[in-house]
Amino acid sequence: MSLEALRSQLPAYAKDIKLNLGNLASEEILDTQKRWGTFLSCAVAGRNPAVIQAIAAEAENHLSPEAVTAAKAAAAIMGMNNVFYRFGHEAGNDVYKTLPAKLRMQVIGNPGVDKADFELWCLAVSSINGCFMCVDAHDAVVRKGGMTSEQVQASVRIAAVVQAASVTMDAEAALGS
């Protein structure tokens, strides 16, 4: 399935999502790797099979195999880290913030692509997963890596729209539409 096919499957009530997907796919504030890595990592984080398949098919036309792997790794590692660090931040007991994580996270140090790009994908996924501690941490790294506020915002716009497409497709499947 392609991005266009996904867009055509979105129902009329999700017209804004359909239009935003098209607009963001061609927006140039992010270079190709940043843009399509964000799309792919966010699709994986959103968990809807149709969205993942459509965006993966499109992303593979724009990303190296290493970048495809890294985008999927960003969603995977943030699936773990966002739960762990969000707990530490939200728990009423500050002792959790002082304990070592004792979780393997090697891919963050060696993602196989430009570190700032990988961190941008982690930031976008963290936004979907609601881990504001991770959003802040990854924002600091990408900003230090030279990315602008506009680029960060563009990645989060992609995250928002891809997540909305996933929610919509899940709802349509559940409703048998």
From TrEMBL:
From the UniProt record, list the reaction(s) this protein catalyses.
N(6)-[(R)-dihydrolipoyl]-L-lysyl-[lipoyl-carrier protein] + a hydroperoxide = N(6)-[(R)-lipoyl]-L-lysyl-[lipoyl-carrier protein] + an alcohol + H2O
**Enzyme class, spelled out:** oxidoreductase
GO BP term, pick one? response to oxidative stress
Residue ranges constituting the Carboxymuconolactone decarboxylase-like domain according to the UniProt record: 100-174
According to UniProt, the name of this protein is Alkyl hydroperoxide reductase AhpD
Q: Where is the active site?
A: 131 (proton donor), 134 (cysteine sulfenic acid (-soh) intermediate)
Which UniProt keywords are listed?
Antioxidant, Disulfide bond, Oxidoreductase, Peroxidase, Redox-active center
Gene from which the chain derives: ahpD
Keyword Zinc-finger, does the record have it? no
Q: Identify the Gene3D superfamilies for this entry.
A: AhpD-like
Q: What is its EC number?
A: 1.11.1.28
Provide the disulphide bond pattern.
131-134
> Do the record's keywords include Repeat?
no
